[in-house]
Amino acid sequence: MANLVNGNDIFADARAHHYAVGAYNINNLEWTRAILKAAKDTQTPVLVQVSMGAARYMGGYKFVKDMVEDQVDSMGVNVPVILHLDHGDYEAALECIKLGYPSVMFDGHQLPIAENYQKTKEIVKLAHAQNISVEAEIGKIGENQNAASGELATVEDAVRFAQIGVDKLACGIGNIHGIYPADWQGLNFQRLDEIANAISIPLVLHGGSGIHRDQVERAISLGISKVNINTEFQLAFQQATRKYIEEGHDLDKEHKGYDPRKLLLPGTEAITASMKEMIQWLGTPSVDEISQD
Ligand code: 13P
């Protein structure tokens, strides 16, 4: 049976040694296999995360947990795998805690800050009783798709949330989910630095796709330890699939180019290739290098 881990030791090590571990969203079976393959090939720890929408699409949180565990086993994945709920609301976080997800995010950013604080506190208590890691969010990262900058979290809120005992904190530092608009102003390193100086828990960069490598590396040097990636792999999958179809391979009846196992293969391989590049950007060390500390 696959041994999924909560990742607390890994992220603490990442924060202490200025590297990051990628948190890669899964959308289906191919995504799951592509991500686990990149982790196994590079022998690096991996966080596999599922959003509420993606879990619904795939058949629910239990199905996702069973599928990830079974894939880890059948692929012989021999690196730490952290299964994580991404942007869970209160009910989703409770359900995943009950199911034994090793790591959950409770995203209360849409709530008034006092309610976000209170609910995060409750989730931390329930999760920690089962050795489950908790990520919280402050600053509205998810809501700025068309803005030139995401909202900035305050240092004061970061300190208050860290005091509750959250294991990782996603702070808005100008980052945005999805494709960044052309006039995006970039990450706010001053705010990141202020927050990182005030709290020592691992910090999370959401909306990790499409940020220039220099900015990602600088953010990691300042305290970002988990970088969330979804759109990057969706675009890699889309471009490779588009190429396959534009080259007419799906029309090749003789070689059964229409078979989904062939049609979906270039996109799946593109995800693995894109993740291997991302691992270099993030400086994610191999499991051997981590255990040598
Ligand atoms: P992107 O889709 O912008 O990579 O963001 C992913 C993310 O932050 C998931 O929580």
UniProtKB/TrEMBL annotation:
UniProt keywords, alphabetically: Metal-binding, Zinc
Cofactor note: Binds 2 Zn(2+) ions per subunit. One is catalytic and the other provides a structural contribution.
Active site: D86 (proton donor)
Entry-linked InterPro entries: Aldolase_TIM, Class_II_FBP_aldolase, FBA_II
Annotated residues for binding of Zn(2+) 2: D107, E137
Gene Ontology biological-process annotations: carbohydrate metabolic process
GO MF terms, alphabetically ordered: aldehyde-lyase activity; zinc ion binding
Listed CDD domains: TBP_aldolase_IIB
Cofactor: Zn(2+)
Annotated positions binding dihydroxyacetone phosphate: G178, G207, G208, S209, N228, I229, N230, T231
Keyword match Zinc: yes
Binding-site positions, Zn(2+) 1: H87, H177, H206
PANTHER family in the cross-refs: D-TAGATOSE-1,6-BISPHOSPHATE ALDOLASE (PTHR30304), D-TAGATOSE-1,6-BISPHOSPHATE ALDOLASE SUBUNIT GATY-RELATED (PTHR30304:SF0)
Protein's name according to its UniProt entry: Ketose-bisphosphate aldolase
Organismal lineage: Bacteria, Bacillati, Bacillota, Bacilli, Lactobacillales
